[in-house]
Amino acid sequence: MDGTGELPGNTKVTREDWLKIAMELLISHGVSEVKILSIGERLGVSRSSFYWYFKSRKDLLAQLLAEWERTNTTVMIAHSEKPAEDIIDALNNFFLCVVDPDGFDHRLDFAIREWARRDEAVRDVVDRSDQARQEAVARMFARHGYRQEEADIRARVLYYQQIGYYALELNESLEERLSRVPGYLFAFTGVEPRPEQVRAFEQAARALAD
Asked: What is the full DSSP assignment across 119-182?
């Protein structure tokens, strides 16, 4: 294999291609339908090419789980750690993580949690990621002057609400969600957001949605 990550000859299928289709199947049909043959058929390559990148289906699933941690968990923590002048700006950074189509993928998160219901090892990974996310959000509150106990509770309320929002499969337009932003900001922080902070978030959210 050369440095491009592609198979020799005319086959232009990369490890990322296999993972992308595997992730799509995981989201749409569940982990039981993430099968080597099915992915190969979608990619138009033979089963043998799979083993260029993965040792087994178990290895593929392990790499899928690692990709979920790298994307959803890492991106949420990174947004929680972005510099901000005050807690409202910090919370706006956090919200942008879930508004950005290329940020937190709630469909993938839900699929992983469904998988975890049937696999204790996956459940352990999900629990570890949930804890890391909550702790990052708690640190965000603590950096902006909240006592540790209060920061922990506010982080849990914020995180559980966000995960629960997607678990309930609420169907709201972007404009409907944006109309509630001032209330959310106040409810989660106890601080009234300034009008310019609300406008800045609305502009950033609409730009990401375009």
From this structure: -HHHHHHHHHHHHHHHHHHHHHHHHTT--HHHHHHHHHHHHHHHHHHHHTT----HHHHHHTHH
